[in-house]
Design brief:
Blueprint: E1 20-24, H1 34-50, E2 55-58, H2 72-80, E3 87-94, H3 100-113, E4 118-123, H4 130-137, H5 144-147, H6 149-161, E5 188-193, H7 196-205, E6 209-211, H8 220-230, E7 242-250, H9 254-272, H10 282-287, H11 292-302, E8 306-308, H12 310-324, E9 328-332, H13 338-351
Parallel strand pairs: 1-2, 1-9, 2-3, 3-4, 4-5, 5-6, 6-7, 7-8, 7-9
Helix pairs in contact: 1-13, 2-3, 3-6, 7-8, 9-11, 12-13
Length: 357
């Protein structure tokens, strides 16, 4: 099977309101292991490819026991060996954590492994807490790299395209695999964000944009409006193209969906209060005694998680697509068990009548 030739625009299948894709956080639950989590990632990627989901992205996180996705490029190489057509990418790589040349080499290698189907989604946040960011960036100011994001992005783009001008200090440096070897395919760059900075930058540069609705829902419409208003046509895009990440979990029974999403809410509560850990079991989440402040946080968090029966999730996704005008929905299913996550994507595919490709 050949990859879709257009690296950005995706086909819509069945009755889905937009193309559907997958964002994987490779969550690790209590009683499970990273090995099991990454095997689940392969299962989901295979299912997503078979059912017409367009792309499969992996997010970069650090020092979080509940996720196993600290190294997106390594995971994507593994997924490339188990898939044939679905686009694979980072959602995203946190550019300030890495030297641009290293990212160009990693994703050039991925492009050589899976020609024509690699996305390089880039973010400017650390993907972790301040102390871990300092350890990653080897400096005392974890925000210093983020402030230099446009410069780093320009440098990375030149490494990927191998087009530093004559006289530039890096003109004789080549990211390999890459164009210097006659390999003309390059990863498709996306900008990711949860506020207005990357939205404006993506628009100005004429790049596709992905917004983290799943954890910054209040900023979604303002950021998308800013992206569209700022957009300038480029060699990459004639018109804006926006993806939003969406927390969505479908189960056969409504009550089971609530049980499962509460595990993610409790995990996020612990993370936000400096107590990160493995994803709790549904039984632990159900038994947890929430304070009034904690309950308010959890209720707010769950209000942005589309969950329930397949019909309910379909209705929620349809409404979200209409409200935001998103060009593509990227679904992330967070739950304690891998089997629940796999089943959710299957149920959503069935609810929209997605074909088996």
């Amino acid at each position: 099977m050949e990859p879709t030739p257009d690296p950005i625009h995706a086909p819509t299948h069945g009755t889905a309101p937009t193309p559907l894709s997958v964002l994987d956080l490779a969550t690790v639950g209590v009683g499970s292991t990273p090995t099991a989590s990454l095997r689940t990632s392969v299962d989901i990627a295979r299912l997503a490819e078979a059912r017409g989901f367009h792309r499969y992205w992996v997010a970069e996180h650090h020092s979080m026991p509940g996720v196993a996705s600290s190294s997106p490029a390594v995971i994507l190489a593994h997924l490339a060996a188990h898939t044939d057509r679905i686009r694979l990418g980072s959602g995203g790589v946190m550019l300030p954590n890495h030297a641009p040349l290293v990212i160009a080499e990693q994703f050039g290698t991925l492009e050589a492994m899976a020609p024509g189907r690699v996305d390089l989604g880039l973010g400017r946040a650390p993907g972790t807490d301040g102390a871990t960011a300092a350890a990653l960036r080897r400096g005392d100011n974890p925000h210093e790299g983020a402030d230099e994001f446009p410069r780093q992005l320009a440098e990375l783009t030149r490494f990927l395209e191998d087009d530093f001008p004559d006289g530039h200090p890096y003109a004789r440096i080549h990211a390999v695999p890459g164009p210097v070897q006659g390999h003309r395919n390059t990863p498709q760059i996306w900008l990711l964000g949860s506020s207005g900075f990357s939205a404006r930058l993506a628009g100005t540069l004429g790049l596709p944009f992905a917004f983290a609705h799943h954890f910054s829902a209040q900023n979604t419409i303002p950021a998308l409006d800013l992206y569209r208003e700022s957009f300038r046509p480029s060699a990459v895009l004639d018109a804006p193209y926006a993806v939003i990440g969406v927390s969505a979990l479908a189960t056969d029974e409504e009550s089971e969906a609530r049980r499962q999403v509460l595990t993610g809410a409790l995990n996020m509560l612990r993370l936000r209060t400096g107590r990160p850990g493995l994803i709790p079991t549904p039984e632990e989440a159900a038994a947890y005694s929430f304070s009034s402040v904690e309950r308010e946080f959890v209720d707010s968090w769950l209000s942005n998680v589309i969950h329930g029966t397949p019909d309910a999730v379909r209705t929620g996704l349809d409404d979200l697509a209409k409200r935001t005008g998103a060009d593509e929905l990227m679904l992330t299913a967070n739950a304690h068990g891998g089997d629940i996550r796999v089943r959710s994507y299957e149920l959503i595919a069935d609810a929209y009548g997605l074909p088996t490709l």
